[in-house]
Design goal:
The structure is a homodimer. By secondary structure, chain A is α/β, with parallel strands linked by helices. Chain A has one domain: Rossmann fold (3-Layer(aba) Sandwich). Helix content of chain A is 32%, strand content 22%. Chain A contains 8 helices and 9 strands. Chain A has a 9-stranded mixed β-sheet with strand order 1-2-3-5-4-6-7-8-9, with helices on both faces. The mean pLDDT of chain A is 98.
Chain lengths: 273, 273
């Protein structure tokens, strides 16, 4: 791990760092906030389309909420970077900044876009080895909310708790998701189901703890890209506990996230203790 | 006032807007946060070099601190924009984003760089007329901390309270300040004294309320550009109450500001009640 920048905040440290990833075969950047106290647990935050490791740590106001706790938060970048892949920098919703947290199977992405492995193996190992932490949970926003749901449901033994802001819950049925899953996983839609929260719930995947979701009702991507109600329906059918908080007037932005972030932090702290 | 973007946050609204300024003869941008409650007072936030009206409202976490109060905060841009002034976009510390909140007397800046008037007249009028608010205070960071000190000390009847993070307190004696004051006000240094907090205090300007300053001791511009101790010395001599909080390990960034922002908000609320 190489620390690039470090800022004292709320007695702890907001840090920008990078490391060499086995999964992506690239140098990956991430940020984290570690409170002053000795930490014993970590939340992984997955960001949305176009974000880097910087957005959440600079805009969400998480530092004040974790100060005084024994929990840190770590925010990986949203895709490998600096690769010379044709077309990977042309659209905001595919390629750079838009990994959708899958293990790609299609050329030319399969060499590096192994973001499922990156999060569930490399980042989890980093948390264990660098910080001595075994208790981990996962949350995210939009595409990162999709990532948190999917990786959390596939690995409930790794992630003690899942929550999401404005998640893409059913990517197989929205434009963003179709474009990404086709591009990374190919035409065969049966492979897409492994990366669709609704399909995972339908197939019997479950998490012991209640999944917490906040969704703004003035969100410009709701419901078309997010399809929140589909997850509610499948969770109900499958008996997966879901607390879906819909909030009048709130949009898709960090202004929304910061407003309800404390609810998510408290939810995670309960299961990380 | 033209609203460009509006985001519900913490029950209130984070808004990006613009208006036509008499002082600068340009359209000026600003942001504000207004809590859900009916407001009766406003804090003006002045940002530092290179900032726009966006930095503070997106990064400081002020919304959570003002939610539930009757006080709004308004964040003007740091200079006129979009002017075709030769050289105004060439350096980070002069011209665009670097007005130093003076009324310029030198061509080609004197036509538009009337930022003292812009803040003390146009923004103050906007607060009164648009929001019906008469109780106003001022705070800022770095160049904006300089602005808050200078405009607050020159207009104690307008601003009920002054505070600053990492302010440039003695611009006549630092490189940033010399460059700016010379460029906007000309070679005659006697005119610079009107825009130097130390010189204002020395000349007898005073504010009835305690001035609150926070300064990080790992700040990369401390003490060379900020000269904090000079203000402490002059305030002591002149009997101006000053609370200067120096904090180990903190730098010049928003991570520092957000950490201590609540102290400043509480200080202002006391005098805005």
């Amino acid at each position: 791990m190489e620390v690039r920048k470090k800022h004292k905040s709320f007695g702890g440290e907001s840090v920008f760092a990078s490391h060499s990833s086995h999964a992506t075969s690239t140098t990956m950047s991430f940020s984290y906030f570690k409170p002053q106290e000795e930490v014993d647990s970590a939340i992984i935050w997955l960001s949305g389309l176009t974000c880097t490791e910087e957005n959440f740590i600079t805009k969400a106001g998480v530092q004040s909420l974790l100060a005084g706790t024994k929990t840190m938060i770590i925010c990986p970048d949203t895709s490998p970077r600096g690769l010379d892949i044709e077309g990977a920098d042309e659209s905001y919703d595919f390629g750079s900044g838009a990994s959708f947290y899958v293990n790609a199977t299609q050329a030319p992405y399969r060499e590096n876009y192994q973001m499922d492995d990156y999060i569930t193996k490399d980042i989890v190992s980093l948390i264990k080895e660098e910080f001595g932490i075994g208790k981990i949970s996962i949350m995210g926003h939009s595409m990162g909310g999709h990532g948190a749901l999917v990786l959390g449901l596939r690995n409930p033994e790794v992630f003690r708790c899942i929550s999401a802001f404005s998640p893409i819950v059913n990517p197989m049925n929205c434009d963003w998701g179709k474009k990404a899953l086709k591009g990374y996983l190919g035409e065969d839609q049966s492979s897409w189901k492994e990366y669709d929260a609704c399909e995972l719930i339908k197939s019997g995947k479950k998490h012991d703890q209640t999944i917490l979701i906040h969704q703004g009702l003035a969100d410009e991507f709701y419901p078309s890209q997010l399809l929140t109600e589909n997850l509610e329906e499948f969770c109900k059918e499958a008996g997966q506990e879901l607390q879906c908080q819909k909030r009048e007037g709130y949009d898709h932005s960090y202004y929304f996230i910061s407003t309800f972030l404390n609810d998510h932090i408290q939810h995670h702290l309960k299961y990380l203790k």
